[in-house]
Write a structure and sequence with these properties.
U8 snoRNA-decapping enzyme, binds the ligand O=c1[nH]cnc2c1ncn2[C@H]1C[C@H](O)[C@@H](COP(=O)(O)OP(=O)(O)O)O1, eight-stranded mixed sheet, NUDIX_hydrolase-like_dom_sf, globular, nucleus, two-stranded antiparallel ribbon, NudT16, single chain, 8 helices, Nucleoside Triphosphate Pyrophosphohydrolase, NUDIX_hydrolase_dom
């Protein structure tokens, strides 16, 4: 009943638009499926071609459906918490690194609710790692249960824009993304200040106005 009341509070067109809610509000929703995904990242001093600063390694993955998304997945009834569900998914998708690396409540960032096509909540987490830890995840991901099936491969997000004005982040943003993962990526880059706002705006504009 609580769920029906909540659902009816929003007019038809409002229900189509995903909403940001607090974790507490999200956890009170009944009959919604909860999913958790995480942006893992690490600072780097490496330069592409010896001159373009890479700045951060940010991990996403190519999914079985040809879309890009973050590692993670649905939380099951048997998971004791959102973090338990996410750690279970990370072990399946990224492999043995997540026997030791653990996501905790400190890594929680935001929750978004959608009503259509199905009622669901996506919880977004972020975790800063060392470059060595990220490289170890990349190597060990070949030994993950889901490698080659649900996960086609772990990919790095290029944060730079090349001289042609499209290569790098603008081209990456032109890919197909699952669910709200593209807005999660932009939110993560913004809120963690991995890029400046003007750099993000330029990359979005260039991705939408590719003349090449
Ligand atoms: O990266 C993501 N960000 C937001 N939502 C996502 C992301 N990846 C998938 N999704 C959506 C799609 C589904 O509605 C759920 C769960 O999908 P998935 O991760 O494929 O779940 P399983 O691995 O099958 O448990 O979240």
């Amino acid at each position: 009943m609580a769920q029906a009341t909540h659902y009816n509070k929003y007019p038809q067109e409002e229900r189509r638009r995903p909403r940001i809610v607090s974790r507490e509000e999200a956890m009170e929703l009944q009959d919604y499926r909860h999913a958790c995904h995480i942006m893992l990242y690490a600072p780097t001093i490496a330069k592409l071609f010896g001159r373009v600063p890479i700045r951060y390694v940010v991990l996403m993955m190519m999914r079985y459906d040809g879309r890009l998304g973050f590692p993670g997945g649905f939380v099951d009834m048997k998971d004791a918490s959102l973090e338990d569900g996410l750690n279970r998914e990370l072990l399946e998708e990224l492999g043995p690194s997540f026997n030791t690396l653990k996501v905790t409540e400190e890594n929680y960032k935001s929750s978004q609710v959608r009503e259509v096509p199905l009622k669901g909540v996506t919880h977004f987490f972020v975790k800063e790692l060392t470059l060595e830890e990220i490289e170890s995840i990349e190597k060990e991901s070949f030994n993950a249960k889901d490698h080659g099936s649900e996960v086609m491969g772990v990919v790095r997000v290029p944060l730079y824009t090349l001289r042609d004005g499209f290569g790098g982040l603008p081209a990456f943003l032109s890919n197909n993304f699952i669910g709200n993962s593209k807005s999660q990526l932009l939110y993560g880059l913004r809120s963690l200040r991995l890029l400046r706002e003007d750099q993000i705006q330029d990359a979005i504009w260039c991705s939408q106005n590719n003349q090449y």
